[in-house]
Specification:
The structure is a homodimer. By secondary structure, chain A is mostly helical. Chain A folds into two domains: about 60 residues, Homeodomain-like (Arc Repressor Mutant, subunit A); about 140 residues, Tetracycline Repressor, domain 2 (Orthogonal Bundle), CATH 1.10.357. Helices cover about 65% and strands about 0% of the residues of chain A. Chain A is built from eleven helices and no strands. Chain A is elongated and about 70 Å long. The structure holds a DNA duplex.
Chain lengths: ~240, ~240
DNA sequence: CGCTGTTTTAAACTGTCGTTTGACTTTTTG
DNA sequence: CAAAAAGTCAAACGACAGTTTAAAACAGCG
């Protein structure tokens, strides 16, 4: 299996064509997904030969993995910092998170293609799904689960917490995964730059109203009854292979 | 352009091979989507020759459209009737609708492939998207918008109503569009037959708590202020081309 | 039976995409 | 400087998918 390729799997030196290929591949994979992206288009955008991908990265999958390795999540975003700041009230953190994720999902910031690649990976998973989940999705899901726990208060089981978390991201991802249908139904329904904040406020308010209502009901129910041992149950979205 | 095909666009007589092709194509399109479905597999399942599709339906798109024409929505479902019954309280109708849509989305009933085809059409639209939206999606969206209006009460503008409606279907569709990620994150989170009702109840409760909270806030706000002319604004998800 | 129109069939055609090849050029290095 | 290694390039290969073709099989009917 020792091919002529120099360092197909390792990072290797970032020569010019390597960089150009990585940049072009990042854009094309984000725009079209792994399957619909063609090596020919990537090489054309990179100004390289068709054989360059196989030479530098082994094959198409190797290039895709290299793109995933090169992409870093956008944690320098101020919304991200606000959402992560545990000294901020949960309602404010939720709004900051919704705004942050919504921006990434809708690709309102052009210079951040990882969000698009993650979306593609959800709809049409590739062999790199496990890495994508462990590196990018699971940490964020666990964090959001903690925030939802703060909003809902005690007395909720692990799966109830998980479902509430998924209700939040479901509202956001809907606009990405169903964008063609939404656009066709009524193009004014699709978030634009001028009404983006109204969408953020709706999803935040909808979620806050829901959690407040569920919390009030749970507190009224467990007024005298014994609450389930929630603090003993593991937090949601744990890695089952990492028993930490 | 007069080909040798008998009645490529019209329905034509339902000979044996036609029926077998339609049945096989329905299954394959539902399982793999338009793009990944291959004519060769459809013909193999139908026990027909590869040229049969082009002879009977013109091309792959013609077969797809014929499948869409042959598929009818499942309005004989008891949950559908309960949801549509305007004499039933809105909260009950919402729960019935969530159960109905969830079952279609998750394909818990094997004998109803249209739901899968609709899902594929959202993620990867084909030229048949406009027909699919007008025939199947828009009527249901408008109906659900009316139900959300009942839940939210007066005083909500058209786009607020639309966003609330999309918050509901977003929660449901999430499990379909992100099934691979959810399965990988924690396979116990994916709805199964034994905890399906718990998911239905969560989405229903989450939505009911949200609408109740938003309604209470709106009623408190517009205690003395003038409410916007909501009854004059058109209902959500109207067809902009049909000014009825 | 023989003719006609319809349906079926095996095979080939066309285009695309990932990959490989072998010659050529550039860079590194002893 | 010259040999070796690394990189580039045009061209082709092999697989696959949608479509077409032309001959064969079949049906109805005088």
């Amino acid at each position: 299996m020792s091919l002529t390729t120099p360092d197909a799997l390792a990072g290797g030196p970032l020569t010019d064509t390597r960089r150009h290929l990585l940049d072009a591949a990042t854009d094309v994979f984000a725009e079209k997904g792994f399957r619909e992206a063609t090596i020919r288009e990537i090489c054309q955008r990179a100004g390289a030969n068709v054989a360059a991908v196989n030479y530098h990265f082994g094959d198409k999958e190797g290039l895709y993995e290299a793109v995933l390795t090169a992409c870093r999540n956008d944690h320098r975003n101020p919304e991200s910092h606000l959402a992560m700041d545990s000294s901020v009230p949960p309602a404010i953190r939720l709004e900051a998170y919704v705004r942050w994720m919504f921006r990434r999902v809708l690709a309102l910031d052009r210079e951040f293609p990882l969000g698009q690649i993650l979306n593609r990976e959800m709809i049409e998973p590739t062999p790199a799904l496990s890495r994508v989940v462990e590196v990018h999705i699971r940490p964020e899901a666990r964090w959001l689960g903690g925030l939802m726990s703060d909003l809902l208060g005690p007395g909720f089981a692990r799966d109830e917490l998980s479902r509430a978390t998924m209700s939040v991201v479901g509202q956001i991802l809907f606009y990405k995964h169903c964008s063609s249908v939404v656009h066709f139904l009524d193009e004014t329904l699709m978030p634009r730059r001028d009404d983006f904040e109204a969408h953020v406020r709706h999803i935040t308010d909808f979620t806050l109203a829901a959690t407040a209502g569920l919390r009030a009901r749970r507190e009224a129910q467990s007024g005298g009854a014994s609450a389930p041992a929630d603090s003993a149950s593991p937090p949601p979205f744990c890695n089952p292979n990492t028993p930490t």
